[in-house]
Amino acid sequence: MVAAIELRTVPPDAIAALLPALAELRIAVFREFPYLYEGDATYERAYLRRYAEADGAVLVGAFAGERLVGASTGVPLSAEPDEVTAPFRDGTDGWFYFGESVLLPEHRGHGVGVGFFAAREAHARALGFPRTCFCRVIRPDDHPRRPADYAPLDDFWRRRGYAPLPGHRASMTWQDLDESVGSAKMMEFWGRTLP
Ligand SMILES: CC(C)(COP(=O)(O)OP(=O)(O)OC[C@H]1O[C@@H](n2cnc3c(N)ncnc32)[C@H](O)[C@@H]1OP(=O)(O)O)[C@@H](O)C(=O)NCCC(=O)NCCS
Predict the structure, then answer these.
(1) Which of 42, 120, 121, 175 lies at 20 to 30 Å from 158 by C-alpha?
(2) What spacing in Å lies between the alpha carbon of 167 and ligand 1's midpoint?
(3) Domain boundary assignment for the chain
(4) Candidates 26, 30, 75, 108: which one to mutate for ligand 1, based on the most atoms within 8 Å of Cβ?
(5) What fold characterizes domain 6-142+151-193?
(6) How many helices (H) and strands (E) does the chain have?
(7) Which of 82, 76, 46, 99 is nearest to 170 (CA)?
(8) Helices (H), the chain
(9) What is the pLDDT of residues 29-40, one digit of tens each?
(10) Phi–psi pair at 26, nearest 5 degrees
């Protein structure tokens, strides 16, 4: 039987203690297409630190009892590095940026992903941010690791009110499964104005 999941917006001073569990989740879930992330503990420590340190950061945890089985994150866009903010040529003002949403496969399909968006949008709104955004990797349709039954999340995001932001693209580098060094990927930004 799959345990009931509770979603909790984690208080800022409790985020740091959950980062090792979030790193494990990211490494487990992002092996899947389209991320194909090999996983790098050193990168994870450096990358995730912003959620413990940046003012306004949020971590929404999905808990089965006290076990973290999923999480989603966010941070004011201004706290992100240049590679993320560069496509926002009019500046980062007013934008709240969503990081990952990861959930172990056995807990999917019960509304946790929808809850992740609702909780992060409520957090952004409470801090006075009128707009939220995130980015996704673009992979070619004929990518050799694309599963035959792969369904992109586009419709899920559109139903949440998001659409691609015209002209907002950036290149990010990580090491794919089967690669011996990192390679650049094209990222596309999506966003919305909160109702
Ligand atoms: C994205 C993710 C967190 C969604 O979690 P979830 O709890 O299964 O999502 P929900 O049950 O709330 O489903 C929400 C909707 O998305 C759809 N959906 C969920 N996962 C999907 C998937 N992998 N592919 C296509 N559609 C999906 C559902 O059909 C549902 O449709 P609705 O809008 O009509 O209700 C989860 O699938 C996951 O961890 N995926 C791998 C990591 C990932 O891709 N993260 C997103 C970018 S960082």
Answers:
(1) 175
(2) 26
(3) 6-142+151-193
(4) 108
(5) Aminopeptidase (3.40.630)
(6) 5, 7
(7) 82
(8) 12-29, 41-53, 82-85, 112-126, 154-159
(9) 999 999 999 998
(10) -60, -45
